[in-house]
Amino acid sequence: MKRQKLAITIGTAALLLTGTAAYASTGTATAHHSTRSAEPTKKQILALFDRWNATLATGDADKVADLYAPDGVLLPTVSPKIRTTHAEIEDYFEHFLENKPVGKKDRSVVDILDKNTAVDAGLYTFTLTDPDTGVKREVKARYTYLYEKIGGKWLIVNHHSSVLPAAS
Q1: Euclidean distance between CA atoms 73 and 77, whole angstroms
Q2: Cβ atoms 158, 145 nearer than 8 A
Q3: pLDDT at residue 152 is higher than 90
Q4: Which residues in the chain belong to E strands, given as ranges?
Q5: CA separation for the pair 103, 52 (Å, rounded)
Q6: Would you say 115 and 38 are in contact if contact means Cβ atoms under 8 Å apart?
Q7: Does position 154 have pLDDT exceeding 60, yes or no?
Q8: Residue 12 in 3-state DSSP?
Q9: For residue 125, what are the contacts with CB-CB under 8 A and spacing of at least 6?
Q10: What does the pLDDT read at residue 36?
Q11: Angle 109-33-145 (CA atoms, 0-180°, nearest 5)?
C-alpha cells in the first residue's frame, strides 16, 4: 500500500513538474509565483510566541488582545471563563498582567497546516510576581496556539492554556 501511494505521489509530481516546465516556458510562471506566499517555517511560528510574550511585558492588555483574531477564543490558565471577544480577552489580560507574567517555553511541537495556518502546542512555565508582596512563583502549564494569517498578519485564532497536572 505504501509503495502504491509513493508511486502515485511520484507520478503526480512528475506531471506537475512537466506542467510547470510548460507553464514556465510561456513566461507567466514568474509573475504567478511572485503572488503566492510560501508556507511559514517552524522558526517563524515559534517566534509568534516571543512576540506575544514581549507584548505581555508592555503591560498593555489591549495590545495583547490585538494579537488575537476578532473571533479568537482564549481558554486561559487562571480563569474558568472562556473568552470569545476582544473585550473579554482584554479583560482577562488586565488582571493577568498585574502579575507581571514572563513566559518560557519548555517544549514546543509546531505543525504547519498550510501557508496561512499553523499550530504550536507544548509546555511552558510562567513566572508570576504577586503585586502586593513581590513574591515570585512559577506556574507550569500546557498550551495550544492555533495561528491564522489574516490580512497579512499572524493572529491567534484559538489559545488554550491549562495548569500542568501533577505527574501520575
Answers
A1: 13
A2: yes
A3: yes
A4: 68-75, 102-114, 117-129, 136-150, 153-163
A5: 9
A6: yes
A7: yes
A8: helix
A9: 103, 104, 106, 138, 139, 140, 141
A10: 56
A11: 20
Whether the CB-CB separation of 146 and 158 falls below 8 Å is answered with: yes
Rounded to two decimals, what is the model's pTM?
0.77
Q: Which residues are bridge partners to 146 per DSSP?
A: 119, 158
Nearest to 53 by CA among 90, 99, 102: 102
The single-letter DSSP state of residue 83 is B
Of the chain, the percentage scoring pLDDT greater than 90 comes to 74
102-114 and 68-75 as β-strands: parallel, antiparallel, unpaired?
A: unpaired
Q: 102-150: per-residue pLDDT in tens?
A: 999 999 999 999 999 999 999 999 999 999 999 999 999 999 999 999 9
Q: Which residues pair with 143 in a beta bridge?
A: 122, 161
- DSSP track, 16-53: HHHHHHHHHTTT-HHHHHHHSPPPPPHHHHHHHHHHHH
Of residues 13 and 46, more confidence is placed in 46
Cα→Cα distances 42→47, 59, 82, 115, 117, Å: 9, 27, 28, 12, 12
Per the DSSP assignment, residues forming a β-bridge with 136 are 129
| Residue 40 to residue 37: CA distance in whole angstroms | 9
